[in-house]
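Repro case for the chain-ordering regression, as requested:
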Amino acid sequence: MKAFAMLGIDKTGWIEKERPVCGPLDAICRPLALAPCTSDVHTVWEGAIGDRHNLILGHEGVGEVVEVGSLVKDFKPGDKVLIPAITPDWNSVEAQAGYAQHSGGMLSGWKFSNIKDGVFGEFFHVNDADGNLAFLPDGMDLATACMLSDMVPTGMLGVEMADIQFGDKVCVIGIGPVGLMAVASASIRGASDVFGVGTRKNCVEVAKEFGATGIINYKEGDIVEQVLARTDGKGVDKVIIAGGDLDTFDQAVRMVKPAGIVSNIAYLGGGDYIKIPRVEWGVGMGHKRIIGGLMLGGRLRMEQYAALCKAGRINPAKLVTHTFNGFDKIEEALFMMKDKPSDLIKPIVIL
Amino acid sequence: MKAFAMLGIDKTGWIEKERPVCGPLDAICRPLALAPCTSDVHTVWEGAIGDRHNLILGHEGVGEVVEVGSLVKDFKPGDKVLIPAITPDWNSVEAQAGYAQHSGGMLSGWKFSNIKDGVFGEFFHVNDADGNLAFLPDGMDLATACMLSDMVPTGMLGVEMADIQFGDKVCVIGIGPVGLMAVASASIRGASDVFGVGTRKNCVEVAKEFGATGIINYKEGDIVEQVLARTDGKGVDKVIIAGGDLDTFDQAVRMVKPAGIVSNIAYLGGGDYIKIPRVEWGVGMGHKRIIGGLMLGGRLRMEQYAALCKAGRINPAKLVTHTFNGFDKIEEALFMMKDKPSDLIKPIVIL
Amino acid sequence: MKAFAMLGIDKTGWIEKERPVCGPLDAICRPLALAPCTSDVHTVWEGAIGDRHNLILGHEGVGEVVEVGSLVKDFKPGDKVLIPAITPDWNSVEAQAGYAQHSGGMLSGWKFSNIKDGVFGEFFHVNDADGNLAFLPDGMDLATACMLSDMVPTGMLGVEMADIQFGDKVCVIGIGPVGLMAVASASIRGASDVFGVGTRKNCVEVAKEFGATGIINYKEGDIVEQVLARTDGKGVDKVIIAGGDLDTFDQAVRMVKPAGIVSNIAYLGGGDYIKIPRVEWGVGMGHKRIIGGLMLGGRLRMEQYAALCKAGRINPAKLVTHTFNGFDKIEEALFMMKDKPSDLIKPIVIL
Amino acid sequence: MKAFAMLGIDKTGWIEKERPVCGPLDAICRPLALAPCTSDVHTVWEGAIGDRHNLILGHEGVGEVVEVGSLVKDFKPGDKVLIPAITPDWNSVEAQAGYAQHSGGMLSGWKFSNIKDGVFGEFFHVNDADGNLAFLPDGMDLATACMLSDMVPTGMLGVEMADIQFGDKVCVIGIGPVGLMAVASASIRGASDVFGVGTRKNCVEVAKEFGATGIINYKEGDIVEQVLARTDGKGVDKVIIAGGDLDTFDQAVRMVKPAGIVSNIAYLGGGDYIKIPRVEWGVGMGHKRIIGGLMLGGRLRMEQYAALCKAGRINPAKLVTHTFNGFDKIEEALFMMKDKPSDLIKPIVIL
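-- result from build under test --
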């Protein structure tokens, strides 16, 4: 089969590869829509997971089942399905502890384009079909469905880790597609003010549509000072980091109240140490919690988040600024993600 | 001063009473707007808290501070303030355990028109002003402010106890004013489907505006069957009881999934035992949690819920269907609450 | 193979049955030690799960793997293993929601001697071996291991649902084997006073060894009054119900503080409605939470609870008052469990 | 009155000062026993809270009430009382949010020898007597009572923030008096293995008595490697930091499992940034939570922890290695705390 792959660090291309084999619990799907992710860019051009050869890229997509294993109970060929980026081993002790994304080791629930080939092929393999697929709801468009793989659950995770209480003030640092979903999620989780930090016009507009009550432009001054100015000097209850680098934690800790939470959903690509400022962290005693996680994955969350779309609580299709048609456009879409034209939030490819 | 009081069971009237005395931590306020509550009706015409003589009624209102005690730090005469129906003793061990509403004994945080005179007087007394008052935000209308005393926090509590997760399906039994706020709260807490059980036209309309995705009419058949029919036979994740009687728990347990939650915010006025059906409760092992509580009260929640209004997340003023003008209209408003004309949700009196 | 089975309601006997077949994810084990449970008595003599014919009984035991399916990764023939009474489907949506015991429907994680044959055979079948078995730790005696199937996890669950905080006062109603493990678990979970309600001499002694600070004898007066007397009239923070009937909930609610928890781990065999007293439940607003659950099952909990035994935190072997030798003694052990001689806590059969 | 005070950085001495004035909610106490704390050493010789002149030192002690304010309900002169090191303002919004220790600003619940004079005087002042004092239980020795001010609640906090589950493996870094109480608390909170990191002979002995299942000597090699070696390379579930410096977080993150918790109770005296290693923190996605807090303070915790002592669950008097007699011995006790002779855990002064 044909697939679009990482050939090595800094190098991508189309390859021919064997169609994946379906184990007893698994499904083989063909894509209906696909989306590249900033993580694909990290993987190829930053070597984030190390050098890889002929690794099929991609972990965001919606598909149709073409084959299922003998032990699969709920899905059959022809079913249209939502596919989470993270597909855990659900009987692992880590899953039993509530952290399936780390089944078999830290981050090991992340299999697509990491431990095995990704979804940018004519066919792709899904482990534990009953546990990891969900039915595409009737009437859901492919753009929405595609955003359910990673953008929605990662944004939601940022909010879940932030443990938002009714009326909390929240700052979301970074309003790319994941940050925007964090804005939307915070807005339907009971936050009052949601401040989005960013500057790109399209992103700012969508942030407001998604429920941001204020936009903070880092070009207009220190973001910590801006947040303090908008909160009577008190800071926000929760910060969600959806962009930036290791220094962003310094800002986050400075702008969050005592007993607040800093919740990270950004992939941290380089540097040695995350910086937590000692004094602003209450000399160790300020109860400012620091947490960072990978989306959980699996069927239940897909179903729950899809239900939110269906009920009209969130509208992730608004992230999609560029739509391509045809499998061969994956390359162009990925390079667009790499080059980030100013009007881009998220591209998808419809097959 | 003049006040409207319970004279005895089944009997109300205007009385003259001494203006309340301000202790060192307290405030004396005059009302700017007041609202009667179904609880006032229970108190007078059901004798819910026992017989009382010349007890000033009312626990919902917004006011202006006219006097503060010597230890009050944050408020001064002239400040316009939000006033929670529940005004706990914040240094009690119960408050330190997170349950201030039960400070000094079960439900003892409920002081207005219970342990002491209520707010339907020319002046009323607020214990622990710094802990229990909140500033009326600039630009907030009196109808919204008045709903923050009890309707909003009680509806919010129903949702908080239900521990809603993103995508949960929720059924709110009873869509009077408190149930409607539960609908609104569930909708901004991450629920997907929110079903409201009720029939009154005004209530149904507001329920939909507040985020209900479906209305269940108990006149059209068993509500348990209707809920199961709308959830593929699985039931809902959470049930909030905001109306009904002891038998309502039987219905709630039958319509909730294993590991779901039944969250009660209705005052249960009569009968001996709440009925939890043994078999549907999993013969004791179905993890269907039953909880019922009183709103917490206090300043922080007032501020947090007010922030939700200001950010446009909720709009409790829509509950107000009837507005009276003048202190002497309290009587009429209370009797309206008692008689419940079909177009009533909530009346208020502006002073 | 030979097995001891329920022949019909009120009737047990030895039968010949096919050795179970091992699916790709499963294991076949032979027992090393077995224990009858009060639930087996309910199943046979109360028809608790309905009439059944030739259903092999038993869900408590420790075994040796004799065969594994092709997809099993961690276990192989010859491995000695702990076996939980509850063996969930870990990829189900219920498991993903944290309630694996209800995978596929309420209580459906309970498979042994319910949905399929139990462990009282020469061989027995374990679904999802990697997810549900745990290695028997070096040096662990069979009595301890056998108590890890059900007695330990059910007692622990009672305490986990009770959400005990450091210093909480706890009452455990019923100090049979499960109640005793609840006493032990509460004592190592941070409770201060743990009151055990019971009278049998052996049980009282073990309760004290396990950390009970007081014993309440229901023959000496109303247990609610006794609990109130020992807590300055305030009641306990948490109640764990490990025995009794539907009326026990009435007592539990009366003896628990506002905002306390009533945590049920008893199988409720008969009657229609659990009785929650309206007034003592705070007319619906007392925050007295009612919860009842089935042990979770699965590998992680087995490992965690086994680690507690190994570290010397609990010593469940003390529950075993009667030890039989030989597979054919299962019948005698079960009838002993049924007849409950006064010195019995728990019998086991060593093979 | 006579008091022992910080005269300036690096300088202590006896001073004469006015007896403190009792506000309406307050109490004045005289000490029955006192203990110096490492924090006093930080305050004087590291200038941790800045330069101060004639600030009376001390925040650990047990006392007798000699005067109460007019609004105090529960205490009267002659009552013997437990006194928490942290005495919050319980009606503050921070307390209402569950973080009373930060009432009025980060760490502002810490008043003794910080915002006001400490307890090393002939008399000392306690704000909000009803909310912050607890009765000395009958029969409790003064050493135990004195350890309830800070050592016990701080150790308990470390365990509470670590959210220990039954069977968790825990590493406590630092087994001075606070770390030892963390060892004891973890052992009664359901941990299986508790590893204590330290070398001092007395501390090692008490750690074992308090429930440590292993001791890790940092002189014998890298502690991360030692922890991994004892946990089959998997690491521990939770780490409690009760000593060390900013680099200790690097070690803690390396030794904790994905989805584990690093819980800090050490005062961090110097340096700019806490070091969280990027890669071992899962490139931002490993769910290794970092939290650090100040003990909560207040009456309820005093009562709950005292109940644990009374029930025999913990025995903090074992921390006391050196007992002095007479108020004038405070100086010697403090210098002992500063000089830390090898056999010291904690000194107290009995008056």
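Ordering looks correct now. The first helix of chain D runs from residue 38 to 45.
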